[in-house]
């Protein structure tokens, strides 16, 4: 009995000891759990701080790129300004020489005998004699040749020359009138006192100030050249000044004349000039014409394609050229990716819908909690990256830099799905939970109707998913197409990367498109039929 009690006592002591150890372990576990939570909070704060710094870095890189382009543009303008200043200095030197010559001639004229002072009281019979005496007197001066004689005669007062010339003409013709005409009285067949001033150059005739109310056809040569410099085509001013008489010269020119006479070999520069001249001819008010090529480089940043800024800047692509961009234009600008073509196409459509408002794209998060598709369509590439950070995918957000992903592409392109986004974010396929999380957030972003349309399109026959390797190839022309090339209109909608609908064609971008109503309402002009995408194909 005693052994049993002692055994129970030993077991009780052991249980108590184990209980103490368990309580110690529990307290230690709580302490470690607290430390783990604290570490996770610090890690989350570090991630948020890092993503914020990355966002600031991207913004600063965009600003630096913009400032570099602005600097290049200002250097070009400074170069042309220095050239014009040099020409002005040459002209000023010529004017100084002319002034010295005039002063010399005035000094020579002061030594002439005062023969002309009594011309008004001289009879007609005495005029030939006085003229001969006057010429002999002038030629008797030292260092005065025949050319100087003529200059001295020209520098004499207008009234005296007019009186002298009229009397000589009447004496030679034998038609002397009984009374003298007044100096400023007009006589048909005689000399006009206003002939000299009408041939001189007025201060306004050489001014480069352009009155926009004046038709372009009436602009002077200097006004046209000044406009070319402001329009970003200043490198062609020298040849233009030798060829152009006025604005009508450009309006009447053929496309091949721009290359021959002005030396415009760059096809996009010719297109830029032709579009501007067409705007002058039709007097159509296009909002897109207010966006210059510097703005377009920033727009490329907004839609996530900064890698093409140099090509677009070299091509002087402005807002009006965006409106009339063709597939071949993009290929010439070295944009060969199918995904990037679609990105630019959707972005131009967003500009159409917003009447080419330069501030229509949203770069920063607003107060919206559940944005509608009509709001998402205006998201820039930076705004999409902010959305990724908000749905706990901050570490993948920087991968969208240079991808061309923006709100317009996400909403308008039916082939753009959560799988496409996961591919561009470089999320590994084996991370199924992460991809499922992205798919859920993507569906909530685009809405149920858009998700349904994207799913229906993905299940359709002939569907080709978007990939980063797919390239755009130029449309091949068969033998039968060449007979139609000359008949094709310059504004043929089939050639534009983003054609506007027939209702908006007449009014250009001054008329808004149909209101938003799901994806189909958001993109009324996008070509989505697989059988009609004959210009787009996989990389061979």
TrEMBL record:
Claim: Repeat is one of the keywords in the record: yes
Gene3D superfamilies in UniProt: Transcription Factor, Ets-1
Entry keyword annotation includes Coiled coil: yes
GO CC annotation: cytosol; presynaptic active zone
SUPFAM superfamilies: SAM/Pointed domain
Stretches assigned to the SAM domain: 219-283, 296-354, 379-410
UniProt-listed InterPro entries: LIPB1/2_CC (IPR058914), LIPB1/2_SAM_1 (IPR037617), LIPB1/2_SAM_2nd (IPR037618), Liprin (IPR029515), SAM (IPR001660), SAM/pointed_sf (IPR013761)
Leader peptide range in chain numbering: none
Coiled-coil residue spans: 22-49
Keywords of the record: Coiled coil, Phosphoprotein, Repeat
Record-linked Pfam families: CC_Liprin_beta, SAM_1, SAM_2
Gene Ontology BP, a term: neuromuscular junction development
Annotated PROSITE patterns: SAM_DOMAIN
Family: Belongs to the liprin family. Liprin-beta subfamily.
Function: May regulate the disassembly of focal adhesions. Did not bind receptor-like tyrosine phosphatases type 2A.
PANTHER family, sorted: LAR INTERACTING PROTEIN LIP -RELATED PROTEIN, LIPRIN-BETA-2
Identification of the protein by name: PPFIA binding protein 2
